[in-house]
């Protein structure tokens, strides 16, 4: 950029911040992929020399785990340096002592959101004086309306299709002057005037963010197109309409996320044996043997190993499809030694356990709750990973897998469509296996194609996996992602105030 704009990234989640930016302090609060993406973007922008600032809730218990006295001493040191630092902690007791970012109770989550946005609007934005504000998801959905009122270009990024609603009366009771920017908010019913709507007409946070922002992006180009084309019935009409308006006004785009740089088998500190494209075959076998040992699976380093890396949510992630075919694929490929490892938490975990116990498959299938170190080891040990999501705003495991030489099996939707291409041995292209009908038979068809590949000559497999690992590192990285956002920031500065 000719002139460095001051960018304020407003996010309720982050997994880490650059050491030079955070002065070595630990800022880690994660509920999902938003935290990883926020951390990656902030780090990449900071490394590129951008004037980037971050607004975060002060999750005292989550960040520090200090006693109150110790934390108060630490907080005083932070406050003394706030004007000089780039980290801006929103202060409110509603999130000081949280153990998790989201409670699962809408009233509590709404309270946290309003407290966070109040501090950003009233204190952090006036202090930082940003040239661009970059907001993320529903918990920041009121800020774009305030930014439009102040004529500050604002980007709103949608990571997840989830929202909350509230009245202006409740918003104002929490200390936010909604009256000053109410006309830029999105109401469930068409408002006639401020006074008429204040007490009853509910504001939709996510749709307000889209409606008021100068520019909007989703974390997958295909997912954005799917919403605009009304291919997902769970997306509310109001959100679809406002996204469509932005899309057809050329004020909406899709920017793919990228996995953490730590997800690389050459440098991953959480796996037993490090490896790269040239020596992946032997080292993956050693990692497989190690994983089999710690999970008490049948020892067989030549067994095809399938990995389930995503939360066990049947609404989105498609784990019910695997449950329907789990016994059959283990049975049908018994002589090949097929094994399945699930490292994921969620409501469907019990169903997986029940299948394993009923059929006595404890030596072939391991069902584990989520553990980050174990998940890394599974990426390094496995040959294939399951990601049969019925919809996917972006997804990261299907990008991480190919970096580790672990080929994804996915349903052809959203971010999965953008990142996984069918493996073609004749043309030396592709990195995984896709199916087009979201049912158990579709997933089974893709598993069979994966096993067709696994039964290929070892040299053929080595060549393809080596190619896939190299291409994936080059394609799925933070520099590409950050550069896309920088180009978008530049575009917004050239046309910051859209009518």
Task: Using brief descriptors, characterize the structure shown.
alpha/beta; 21 helices; 499 residues; elongated; 44% helix; seven-stranded parallel β-sheet; disordered C terminus; six-stranded parallel β-sheet
| Unreliable sequence segments | 66-84, 495-499
Radius of gyration from the CA trace?
A: 24 Å
Give the strand order of the largest sheet, numbering strands 1, 2, ... along the chain. 3-2-1-4-5-8-9
Query: Which structural class is indicated by helix and strand composition?
Result: alpha/beta
Helix content: 40-55%
DSSP strand count = 15
Terminal-residue CA separation? 25 Å
Provide a compact summary of the structure.
It is built from 21 helices and 15 strands. The protein has about 500 residues and is an alpha/beta fold.
